[in-house]
Amino acid sequence: MASGRSTSGAADGRTMPTGGPGPGGTDDKAGFEILDDFTRFSQVDDVFSRSWWDPTIRSDTTERFYATYRRPLTEWRKANGFTQRDYAVRNASWHVADVFAEMYEDRDRRDGFLDDLSMLRDSASERLEPDSPQESTAQLKQVARTFGADLIGVTRFDERWVYTERFSIAAGGPKANDLPDNLDHVIVIGQAMNDGLIRTAPSALSGAATGLGYSQDALVLLAVAQYIRNLGYQAIPSMNDTALAIPLAIQAGLGEYGRHGLVITPEFGPRLRLGKIFTDLPLVHDQPRTFGVKQFCEQCDRCAGACPSRAIPHGEPVSVALNRSGIRGVRKWSVDGEACFGYWSKINSDCAICVRVCPWTRDYSKPWNRWWSRLAGTRLRGLMLRLDDRLGGSRRLKPTQWWSGVTNRGWAESRPRRIKPVDFRSITRLFHDGGDGPGH
């Protein structure tokens, strides 16, 4: 990759003044509260990177966790959702993402996870100048959706979220994270994860939703980036590498930040994988949007209560990093990455319980779910939460049910047929009991 905008420098280059609003004045709109001690993040400190070099994280258990993605466990424990067949599905879903990740391991690269996706042809020799950035943006979004992007937004390059350095597995430490100087725009793309698989969490099957999301993400990002390069512009497609995706997604208007540390979108809730493309193609930026998530999460702590590792907070946002895998100087709901990954290693698959139980995880192609979402963003949010609880919104789908063709688990995704009829008198009493009072 061409060098230019280096982010790897000395420690004194990692702390940036934040006295005013962020680039474009979007911090308030995005709900960011950046403090004076803000410090940019190094990928070396990511909990997955630490599982390769940090003896407080790395163990025989984490080694086995990674090994199961290369060879499915034939025998581990007799548990629904963790059979060889379940692992076979999970590992197959990861196959495309793994092909890219393993392609250049001899060059100390893991494309998509520690390094940008590099399987691209050179840019066209001549640039096709658009009539306007507005036209260029509309055309880009049309192409991205055609290539399979479920969500797409555009924001400006914000160095605060770019890793100060990448992680090198070969060196067991940092390596440079260089970007060209003139990539002023970031395209953020969201891929919805399969709902039926997510419903089985925790299981190896639910891990297939993650793997499939990454594999689809890699294909869409590469295709969109190549389209941009065919126009004569630079495009660097990125998955988990290069920069933090969540703040960029919020700035690009994809959704709001939730208690579980994930982006909640109006279209899919938190059931989403994110990717981004750094480019100099002239584009118009989207604005952050709010639809009541913050206020809802202040009342709802279902994800915190369901988290088996107690990694998700019950209380208010905090301004300190819980450990070295957390970013410093941002007041937010912070998830304990060490505890979360520890549970993943224990069950030999990623967890996703917080995604499954989140009330915003629902099928928004159904009108009653769109109705729920609109009311959940108002003062009736308390009522909507209680209604979802009463009708079993967080119920797990048994993996055996998934194998037999059942993909829904209650009112949130289909008209209920297996649950008791709704007592509308009790729902009326909920209205009379009151949702939130004025000012909440």
General description of the model:
The protein has 440 residues and is of the alpha+beta class. The strands form five sheets. It has a four-stranded antiparallel sheet, sandwiched between helices. A two-stranded antiparallel sheet has the order 1-6. Helix 4 runs parallel beside helix 8 and helix 5 crosses helix 8. It folds into two domains: 5-352, no CATH class; 360-393 and 410-433, no CATH class. It is built from 17 helices and twelve strands.
Helix and strand pattern: EHEHHHHHEEEEEHHEHEEEHHEHHHHHH
Strand order of the largest sheet: 3-7-11-8
β content, as a range? 5-15%
Number of helices: 17
What distance lies between the first and last C-alpha atoms, to the nearest angstrom?
A: 50 Å
Quick structural summary:
This protein is α+β, with helices and mostly antiparallel strands and 440 residues long.
Features:
four-stranded antiparallel beta sheet; 35% helix; single chain; 12 strands; 440 residues; alpha+beta; 17 helices
